[in-house]
Amino acid sequence: MDSAAPRFSAVGAGAALELRGVTRLFGALAALTDVTITVRPGERRAVLGSNGAGKTTLFNCVTGDFPPSSGTIRFFGEDITHFPPYERIRRGLRRTYQISALFPGLTVRDNVYLACRGVSRGRFSPLRPGANDALMHAAEALIQAVHLTPVREQRVAELAHGQQRQLEIALALAGAPRFILFDEPAAGLSPTERRELIDILTSLPAHIGYIIIEHDMDVALRVVESVTMMHNGRVFKEGLPHEIEADPEVQELYLGAGHE
């Protein structure tokens, strides 16, 4: 394995997300060990690795679902290591999950509106939204951004799987996020749906940075500018997409020896 220091992990000022020496233990099992990663504002980063590499645990530490056993996490310069998830959300951190977390009995528009309402100051207001409600306008804009305008009045349960994944991205965009964690957004998508996903991700506003966990290398490497490879809970390699794709050790461990 490459013993050189990862190129993108040097801790520096002005980072959107900094992990320093993050370790997560589950009893005697170390799911993450001494992980140090730095992501710049607006940067799009892929975190790749085989099952069990520690990718989702990394996300859980960043979002506060499972705080690290040791190490620190800073978000735009602020130490959020011990913040509860809702405080991280208030600061502009968002996440999607491998398993859809939607309201299947409600329409697409209602799902997005509730997401916008949930991160607004007036979220507990008993008043129904009117025709000129600012949050409803925001919801409509997000629906358009993820290419769901034709099905905005459909119930989520009636959507195709790919459309549900698009809806999850709309929910993550509610409330002007500064950084998003995408957990396997291409899972289960058809080739056509993958192309739609790539178009949506590459069209996001430039100031919104993100990290994407993805097993589909063809999707992941087309929507990011940097890559972190993980192995056994540690950072294994970091580089540009074409460098990672061409790396012999990466091909052997993750893509198969016959990959070209």
TrEMBL record:
Residues 17-257 form the ABC transporter domain. Transmembrane segments: none annotated. One of its GO terms (biological process) is D-alanine transmembrane transport. One of its GO terms (molecular function) is L-isoleucine transmembrane transporter activity. The keyword Transport applies. PROSITE patterns: ABC_TRANSPORTER_2. Pfam families: ABC_tran (PF00005). GO terms for cellular component: plasma membrane. Keywords: ATP-binding, Nucleotide-binding, Transport. Involved in beta-(1-->2)glucan export. Transmembrane domains (TMD) form a pore in the inner membrane and the ATP-binding domain (NBD) is responsible for energy generation. This is ABC transporter ATP-binding protein. It comes from Bradyrhizobium icense.
